[in-house]
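Journal club prep, notes for RB
We'll compare a predicted complex against what the paper describes. Inputs for the arginine case:
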Amino acid sequence: MYSARYQYAGQNEQHEKVDFLTNKEKMSSKRKTGVVVGVLVALLVLAAVAAFLIWLFVFKDADSEATLSEKRVPAVLVFSGHMKLVDMTYDPKLEDTSSKNFQMLADDLEEILEINYKKDPFLAKYYTKSVVTAFSEGVIAYHWTQFNVPADDLEMVPEFSEERVLEMLWKGIRKQGKQSHQDIKISEVTASYTDPRMARNPRAKECFYRLEAETNVQSFQSPGFPAKYPPKSRCQWQIRAPEKHAIAVRFSHFHIEDDCSNDFVSIYDSLSPDESQAITEKCGQRPPTNPLQVVSSSNIMLINLITDSAIQRPGFRAEYNIIPLSTAKTCGGRLTDSQGKFSSPHHPSFYPPALDCKWTIEVAAGKKVRVKFSIFRMKEPGVDIRVCHKDYVEVMGTKYCGEMSSLALTSQTNILEVTFHSDESFTDKGFNAEYNAYDPANPCPDQFACASGICISKDLQCDGWNDCGDMSDEMKCKCEKDQFACDNGMCKPKYWVCDRVNDCGDESDEKQCSCDDNEWRCGDGTCVPQEVVCDTKKDCGDGSDEASCKVSPGICSDFSFKCKNQECINKVNAECDRVKDCSDGSDEESCDCGIRPYKLNRIVGGENAELGEWPWQVSLHFMTNGHVCGASILSDKWLLSAAHCFQTSNSLNLVTSNWRTYSGMQDQYKQDDVQLRSVQTIITHPNYNQMTFDYDIALLELSQPLEFTNTIHPICLPAPSHVFPAGMSCWVTGWGTLREGGRTARLLQKAEVKIINDTVCNVVTEGQVTSRMLCSGFLSGGVDACQGDSGGPLACFEESGKWFQVGIVSWGEGCARRNKPGVYSRVTKLRDWIREITGI
Ligand code: ARG
């Protein structure tokens, strides 16, 4: 799978919602005549009953759970922070929680906290305990305090503001010095709202670790690693370094559940889990190519692992060592070469908190400077990227923050200053930048100068693609005769107009797409005379003129759904749509397919698929070569794949015993819950043509049936009449190579691609597609299937709530190239053959 582009997939949430509106909508359109009112009332009553029943069975459980946790269980509020103790010499024994020194001072401070909180009648009511968790040089004491608010008092929660707690504490502590604990003087105190799961008592020792960082790299790991971390863990690692040193931690393995609200790792630039000193909070799985690395701003760091009872993952392994503070915090400088590179401190590690740097780039007089940031990530929760009030890079008076895919800037003079600022909380990867000097009279010799200052090849100007990144190479272009002039000044091939894909980027190629009054607009945007619609002959290239015809039952066209009893249903995509259309119900038979048993909360980051996200995906291993092709599950005995995986110049590919099929797999190196089955029969399509890849389809019969589970489930096959319109978003999945000529993936990959209209498909493939093929991808390139994805499914999600397999990965010119989309076997055209062989 090749994917340079990733689109955030909020999809899942949509799929699983239950929509009540539809019934009401249907009803309101009927509200026309008085006679209908009675029917309407009856319908409303029915709908209300239905809605109540749905609520009763679908939502009530979830509801009552929510009420339970919200109403009956008291709220736990925790405030954590630190106190500075003055006139006290620091004894390293204070670092050992089992030492007398620690215990005595901690006891005294806990008492001071308790006395103070109890002085405030409001806080006293809810106070449960105060815990001192650590000391560091300064002398700094780290503490937290917990309050339990009974359910009935929950409305009072707003009174528990950080300000109130802090004010109380500060007022009391100032007086306190003069009373019982004369030897303890506190000059500073902080307390901020803290996730109660992070409040640990180091004296309890359970899943609590103290680490001393040194120059040599040492390591630590989460409990249970690499198998699974324990459920409901609250683990904490306190890391210390000698004075004047910073701590660097690198997570070489990191696999936490994908939903951060369940399981996560949080890292602090303090020994208190204090939001205001958080470095970062992460979950999910990170590939070894993108490890999480952080650096502290001083000689302490706190790492927490929080898990719930649901899903357990392997956890993490981390390496840590010290860096002298002088090097950890040195950054910026003067750059006087005519070109060079610079990056944020410690990049690609996260930069340390609380750091300012300045680079002054000075090139020869008369020249100017251009800077190009290749990576730019300074994202923080709650920051408006137009203001950048927390971490930022500032160039010529403008602050930049957030995440940018391309940022290029040019100076006004021969000097350019770049400043970098990070505040106390939340850090990120930072940036990587390159600069060079250029002659303002001729900024791009023999090249095109983008508005941003970067130079690109002249051929790329006005070619319909945004090569500059700021579109400046596509503005003010004179469009050729066969091109369409977009409103934004770009030129696009005329045949892309009205294909339901926003090719211009500003929708202008899809704006005036309605046909004349006496015409009908096909799914691919072309107009056909009104008379030919529903004449049982296909006039639109995609057949959409015959797809939804209200002809009397019994009249059959190529576009009708044919019931088992030979009845014809003239409705778009009637099969498995949860509505019984055939009088014998055959359109809703065998519909236990195309669903994901796992309720995936959301899909976060990257293109790695989640376990169970594509439960019909199969990996085919050949002899000792490992994964070579994909396949999909049609039933417990049948898999669908591509003929070209088996019909090759090597006759061994047709020998069943050379193949192994793995279902329920996500990671090629992991076999837990994976079902291995051998192949009993390989059936390739008799018309398969090795030269043209026509009829590139194969069926595999398994020797033993599969057992369906949360991660193993069949996909739905579309009826021959099923319409997948151009522009529809579908997903291709597989372990294929991540780029042309690259290696196959270890983790299952997914990519969102669009169905491309047949005319365009035919043009871009220079007429090589047959009616048994379809194109899908992006003409701009960047996302595609690739070598090793063959035989795998192209799956589309239908409104009815099911996934249908529209294509089988078949071929393409290279991978993800411009104007070279992926070509797939068209399942609707091969549907009847599948039924002939398998009976499915
Ligand atoms: N034939 C390739 C295989 O055996 C799949 C190619 C798909 N290529 C593409 N650009 N979509 O794995």
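Talking point for the session: The CA atoms of residues 733 and 750 lie 4 Å apart.
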